[in-house]
Amino acid sequence: MSASNSFIYGAFFAVYTSTITHATLYHRREIVSGFRNLIARKSAFANSRDVHTRLMRSYKEVPEWVYLLVLCASIAIGAASIAVYPTNTSPAVVLYGVFLAIVFCIPCGIIKAITNVEVTLNVVAELFGGLWFPGNATAMNYFKAYGYVTTSHTLHFSQDLKLAHYIHIPPWVTFNCQMFATFVSTFVCTAILNYQMTKIPDVCTPGQKDHFTCPGVNTFFTASVLWGTLGPKKMFGAGAIYNGLLWCFLIGALLPIPFYFLSRKWKAFQYFHAPVFLYGGLVWAPYNLSNIWPAVPVAWLFNYYIKKRHLAWWSKYN
């Protein structure tokens, strides 16, 4: 692997464990409170004095059993599809995606809600998929798809509900819109992909006349070779060339701890957010810093300079 590619895998390893540690240290009370309210069948906003919450109480909420029904139907359809089609993998891959969501959904959701940074699970999904089906790139890709997309869609679904809460759309309307859009997009996305691969000449090749070179798609292919065909044991196992990167799991788990205790004594350390810090390492490949740098001066101008000096203008127009 190139230096930048090996670097982002190390950053991925660290950001996963860092996410769990950070959420446990900084947000354990909110997480425990949320589960208590769920068990007691009590709304988390029952005693809230927030104006948006008071207005939204006029609408009927979508009950938890409806979401559970959707989850069960999705698992059944996904498992049946994996079993019927020649996917060379196990229907249990669908449950694997649900398992990763159970572990990471709340920590990743808290971080995204506060920082707008979404920790994606594609690499940890590749790791377990490659260990489960060594030498089978196709099966590993199904593990990657279900392991990554399940949590990602959960967060996007929650983001829609959060937006609807603030602009006062009834929960049932939001839910129905999401179900309809998901159903339609299933066919639209497949049709677009088939069109791209069959109608655009030389798509995803270095000499494509419109420069549709697909760096993200090529990264997906490269990852399927690394994690599927070769497998994690050959790449990261004992004595393997990239074995040292496994230390990043421990580094990520420990990194938030000293800053948590330091922040209780010195205010400056409150601004260090370990998962966001590590997430910065994920932009090193397949693109380069020229894709990221143009946003920096724009963000600094509006979110620091103007916000500090012209708060009313920033609040209204930014």
Q: What features would you describe in this structure?
A:
This protein is mainly α. The chain folds into 2 domains: 3-287, no CATH class; 291-318, no CATH class. Helix content is 70%, strand content 0%. The protein has 14 helices and no strands. The chain is globular, with a radius of gyration of 22 Å. The mean pLDDT is 90.
The low-confidence parts are none
Oligomeric state as shown: single chain
Beta strand %:
under 5%
Largest sheet: none
Order of helices and strands: HHHHHHHHHHHHHH
Share of helix among residues? over 70%
Helix count, per DSSP? 14
Structural class: mainly alpha
Terminal CA distance reads: 41 Å
Strand segment tally: 0
Arithmetic mean pLDDT:
90
Task: Please tell me what the overall shape is.
Answer: globular
Output the radius of gyration: 22 Å
Features:
single chain; 318 residues; mainly alpha; 2 domains; 70% helix; 0% strand; globular
What's the topology here?
Blueprint lengths: L2 H37 L11 H6 L7 H21 L7 H24 L6 H11 L4 H30 L4 H29 L15 H16 L1 H5 L10 H8 L1 H8 L10 H6 L15 H15 L1 H7 L1
Helix pairs in contact: 1-4, 1-10, 3-4, 4-6, 5-6, 5-8, 6-7, 6-8, 13-14
Could you provide a short overview of the structure?
The chain is mainly alpha-helical. The chain has 14 helices and no strands.
